[in-house]
Amino acid sequence: MNNIIRKLKEEDVPAMASLMRNAYPGYDISDDAQKNTEKWVKRMVSSTTDEIGLGCFDEYDQLLGGIQVLHKTMNLRMEQVKVIGLGGLCVNLLHKKKRIALNLLLHAFMKGRNDGACMAILDPFNIGFYKKMGCGISVKNHQFKLKPSQIPKEGNRSLVSELIEEQMALIVKYVHQYSEKHHGMLKMETYEVCDILKNCQLTLGVWQEDKLSGIMPIRFERTAPHNIFKTNLVVEAFLYDNHETAKAFMSFLNAQEDQVNQVVLSSQDNHYEVNFQNPDTGDDDTFHTRSNEMYRTGNGMMARILNVEKTLAAVAVPDYETIHFPINIQIDDPLIEELNGLWTLETIDGKISASPAKKHSIEDGSVNIADMASLVMGAVEMASLLNYGLVDANDITKMKALGRVLHYPHAPVCLSRF
User: Can you give the three-state secondary structure of the chain, one letter per residue?
Assistant: First the structure.
């Protein structure tokens, strides 16, 4: 019999919490963890506006899988757009390989599309699986491990002070303002900001002209399980409005040399290493004996286009590139039939206007839906996709022009965790 996908109800909370704990066995599986997970699922189920839980049930109303769907606002190339965030995807271990995860994702995609979202954003547990679902790599996290002495000390450390719990509203306000200025950022709810800060020893802020101009929550971790006095300082987030604020935070980090072995600092900026005179991590187990490791890169959020018209409407077209339009591009989508096909891209009021191509239109090139998402997010360049043979070009001039238009100068930033 066919399984049924429906919204989770309050009576489904214990089953969903247990399913999540078993689906992610690397997390804490204690009784306290079960209670905390139930609390999280209950909040999701009881929400009336911004999030829902979906469950896949068999004919006996037994829960086989579930997923969280959040309605979010995202900064897409300085345009505020509707997206959905997907998290908590889990499947009963006894029912793997039965297309439950695929059906939950497809259901969530179509729900998001029907609700007016232009994209879906998710944190992948397996990049290859989600690329098959049409999701493209979006955010990349570059992790630096540096001695405090490797971090610049020229900033004004006196600008840095501790932010206390009573200032949480100011912190949340600052994060919201930050998201409005940074491509890729999702607007975060208060509880999401609190989740980042709750495991940190200190949340530091920089004040300029009586205004908060940056935040840096930090925590400490032992370099080894039995090392009490030898610790690393982990920067959970490094948000700043200007270089003076960044330098003040860095001066603070530099001053911790007496107690800190390494500072673990992550950035989504593809050129962040230029901040350091010596960005060498000190790890001698690199891919080549002559190479000094500067950072390690991991995936962040992935993006999935749900509505081609709304997504591409955020892309500005310079006047000098309009001569190359219209462009007819084949978008190959393995999952959503309405998106799979030939699209005509034109320009209206300086933005891309996309519509299904008319019959007998000549195809200028083709691209996979996942790679199109990466292009729009500024996570990959058209020139690279052409070079690797991942984009076909019947009209190379038009495809190169499209690549220039889709290029975005700043790497996407995302702090959300779901």
Answer: CCCEEEECCHHHHHHHHHHHHHHCCCCCCCHHHHHHHHHHHHHHHHCCCCEEEEEEECCCCCEEEEEEEEEEEEEECCEEEEEEEEEEEEECHHHCCCCHHHHHHHHHHHHHHHCCCCEEEECCCCHHHHHHCCCEECCEEEEEEECHHHCCCCCCHHHEEEECHHHHHHHHHHHHHHHHHCCCCECCCHHHHHHHHCCCCEEEEEEECCEEEEEEEEEEEECCCCCCCCEEEEECCCEECCHHHHHHHHHHHHCCCCCEEEEEEEECCCCHHHHCCCCCCCCCCCCCCCCCCCCEEEECCEEEECCHHHHHCCCECCHHHHHHCCEEEEEECCCCHHHCEEEEEEEECCEEEEEECCCCCCCCEEEEHHHHHHHHHCCCCHHHHHHCCCCEECCHHHHHHHHHHHCCCCCCCCCCCC
- Mark whether 284 and 346 lie in a shared domain: no
Same domain for 390 and 330? yes
Q: pLDDT at residue 169 above 70?
A: yes
> Is 102 found in the same domain as 191?
no
* 344 and 244 fall within a common domain: no
| Residues 159 and 286 occupy one common structural domain | yes
**How many domains in the chain?**
3
Global pTM? 0.92
Question: What pLDDT sits at residue 29?
Answer: 60
Per-residue pLDDT tens for 198-227?
Answer: 889 999 999 999 899 999 999 999 988 888
Based on the domain organization, do 152 and 295 belong to the same domain? yes
